[in-house]
Amino acid sequence: MDAFQEFDQPQGPERSTGAIISHAFETYKGVFLYGLAAMVLYLLISLVIQSVSGFNAETLSEEIRTADGDFSMMSIWGIPGMGTYYGLSGLVGLLFSPVYVGLIYMANKYNSRETIHINDLFIGYRQNTLNIIIYSLFSGIIMVIAFSLCFLPGVFVLPLLLLGYPVLLFENATFSEALSKSFNIAKENYGVFLGASVLGWLISAAGIILCGIGLLATIPFYLIVMYSTYCAFLGKPRIIATPN
To answer: Which of 58, 110, 157, 224 could form an SS bridge with 146, CB 3.0 to 4.6 Å?
Structure first.
């Protein structure tokens, strides 16, 4: 497991929503292509899963059109391959979470003016891997429950998880420590965290305007918002270089 040194406290944005989003924009420009590569990789894996499961998205679309707004009689899980597809997708999503941490690591290297290498994207598979995956599972369950309660609760819960991934990476924390630390810092600075998370989420979702394809380019931005928020409240971490 690679060690991380203490933090360079002065190097980070001010503790305001605008400063955090601005810092995230500047940082994302330096890791944009790596974020895009990560999303393309995830898309390719998803296509393989769809092929293996036998699930056909057109069948689901046809079921929705046929229902004509009345979904009470529609059996989604009866669609061939649906259960297998979503089961495998969920598993792959968990196993892919260390890549998200890798993009945060790249953001810190860019912010530190260090040379970025493509295999930095996979540091999460060498650094605190199990806790990253468990955290991804727990935070995912929390968000699913929150967003299922008329959507708004999910928006209000989102800021409480904003620091989880950076804490896992830069502090080698356990998943429970990451959840606790993120929650405690966010609740003390809730207005800033809410603004940063909502704006970051909206910008990340903005790619849907380009027929959904643009999402590949914009979705990773939210991860950089996590990093910028961490820098604002805990300082920019100084890392020990890892072998490439």
So the answer is: 157
Q: Which residue has the tokens 């009866």?
A: 78
Beta bridge pairs of residue 236: 8
Whose CA is closest to 97, among 149, 51, 139, 154? 139
| DSSP state letters, 79-129 | STTHHHHHHHHHHHHHHHHHHHHHHHHHHHHHHTTPPP-GGGGGGGGTSSH
Cβ pair 20, 225 in contact under 8 A? yes
Query: What's the pLDDT tens digit per position in 183-215?
Result: 999 999 999 999 999 999 999 988 777 666 677
pTM value is 0.85
Residue type, 177: E
